[in-house]
């Protein structure tokens, strides 16, 4: 099932043409987006997602998104949803048509969660490490690379996932050329060691995760230590658990990395899922 809401406050047919062929989001990936999880009619972390949408838009020199309009689209989709209890909301915001008057294009599309993602939530997945060509300090030295923006330019991320599939895996952990961990193509990495949770710093040019932040809030209340610190690839193999987290995948464990089984983290995964769900 899909439900499409436009920024003017109307619903539209998701099976009918809606985007002009000269929209810069389509032609050049010149736009930003967010993915919000809705469970039982309640959007999770909507405020932080809208904050991040605005930050990404600012990095691309896009007009500031109309927050109230996007909030209305979210309500429209949720109120008209007749599918399952979970919805993946895609909030899309582009520069608009080439040569136009500068009016941005924006909409929210509600979709079902795929069976593949649901299975990975339960069973975990195999991942590979791939060099992303990013080094510490690059985001500050070259802000035009938009390393901290959630842009529509996802060709590299999708190419990485195809490479993972060719190697018999389902996901990717991006690294720097010197061997520091970054993130997944569509997720944040969290390492667990004893009662410590660690995620790489955004200063490496990665996107701070809303789901990771929610997990860390809950874990802190329960006495866990949470850290934002560099992680070396070798540490992943020695950890109690490695997890890829995002709005749609929630907390998903990595059971195999670069063809090598990681320590069994099924029980730890169940505990982290409890911590995350306790936020809601």
Summarize the structure.
This protein is an alpha+beta fold and 280 residues long. Helices cover 31% and strands 27% of the residues.
Q: Would you kindly provide a written description of the structure presented here, covering whatever features stand out?
A:
Helix content is 31%, strand content 27%. The mean pLDDT is 95. The strands form 2 sheets. Strands 7, 8, 9, 10, 11, 12, 13 and 14 form an 8-stranded mixed beta sheet that branches. Strands 2-1-6-5-3-4 form a 6-stranded antiparallel beta sheet. The longest helix has 14 residues, at 46-59. Helix 7 crosses helix 9 (266-277). The protein has 2 domains: 2-113, 2-Layer Sandwich (D-amino Acid Aminotransferase, Chain A, domain 1); 118-277, D-amino Acid Aminotransferase, subunit A, domain 2 (D-amino Acid Aminotransferase, Chain A, domain 2). The chain has 280 residues and is α+β, with helices and mostly antiparallel strands. It is globular, with a radius of gyration of 19 Å. One of its GO terms (biological process) is carboxylic acid biosynthetic process. Keywords: Aminotransferase, Transferase. Pfam families: Aminotran_4. GO terms for molecular function: transaminase activity.
